[in-house]
Amino acid sequence: MPPAKLARLQELAALWDVEVSVLGTFTGDQRLVVRYAGAVVADLPMDFLHDGLPQRRMRAVYREQNKIKDSRLDVPALAANLQSSIFNLDSSILSLLSHPTIASKEAIVRTYDHEVRGGTLVRPFVGPALDGPGDAAVLKPLDTWDHDRAFALSNGINPLLGLVDPYAMAVSGVDEAVRNAVAVGGDPDRLSLLDNFCWGNPNLSGSAGCVGAYVSGLLRRRGRLRHALHFGQGQPLQRVQRQAHPRHAAHLGHRHRAGHAARRHLRPQAGR
């Protein structure tokens, strides 16, 4: 922050009730010096601060999954169920819509505040009754009504696929986040991606190998789409009641013009 612009920053922080503090200044001597009550309490060279920690070396082994133990991924069984009801369109649609992956998450979403300073243009639920899940949110920050730009915030996640192929899970998650952003009018050429993941024990070579496969898929998909990619907070050792979570990751994307915000829903037929 240039010193000449500090006062303006403090004015903006006060306007939005955001705390801001001056932590120090850049001196150019390549050292971090911390003082408390006039006394030096820390004095470290910057090369040690950034590169002094020895890098951890871990063993990673990745083996493709040959057997699917999760009944939710039993493709032959799913195909048989679909075949038995394929001629009954009504029951097939109801069966799909009632699946946990597709069913409305309204009971959960309603417990969170999704109105961001009155700038939410496209909300989590759309349709004639505003009870159908939307593809993504569109946000228009305050004091930006002098132009038509806004943010589309989408996400993608596929933990069940991660049980079989972490590489494919990464590709699928990015694709879903991009498609959801485009569905509300987002520009696919102006997306930024943020990755967050929860995983198993990284000390196990198999788990570390799956992380490597996942990152490879993420980087490959990112390279094809030419999007900015930011790695967020990773959470290893996610375990509940002695059982590991399905490894999973979420991807977020952003950005488009407010005038093109789209809300998708099924339109009822006349007279029904």
Characterization of this structure:
It contains eight helices and 13 strands. The chain is α+β, with helices and mostly antiparallel strands and 272 residues long. The strands form four sheets. Strands 3, 6, 7, 8, 9, 12 and 13 form a seven-stranded mixed β-sheet that branches. The longest helix is centred in the C-terminal third of the chain and has 21 residues. The C terminus is likely disordered.
- Overall average residue pLDDT: 76
Number of helices: 8
In CATH terms, the superfamily of the largest domain is PurM-like, N-terminal domain
The rounded Rg comes to 24 Å
Helix content: 25-40%
Structural class: alpha+beta
Number of domains: 2
Overall strand count: 13
**Cα shape:** flat
Largest sheet: 7 strands, mixed
Q: What order do the SSEs take from the amino end to the carboxyl end, as H and E? A: HEEHHHHEEEEEHHEHEEEEE
The CATH architecture of the largest domain: 2-Layer Sandwich
Low-confidence stretches: 240-245, 264-272
What is the CATH class of the largest domain?
Alpha Beta
Descriptive labels:
272 residues, alpha+beta, 60s Ribosomal Protein L30, Chain: A, 30% helix, flat, disordered C terminus
Can you describe this structure in just a few lines?
The protein is of the alpha+beta class and 272 residues long. It has helices at residues 6-15, 46-51, 75-84, 89-97, 106-109, 159-162, 166-183, 205-225, and strands at 31-36, 39-45, 120-122, 125-126, 132-133, 137-139, 149-156, 192-198, 228-235, 239-240, 243-244, 248-253, 256-257.
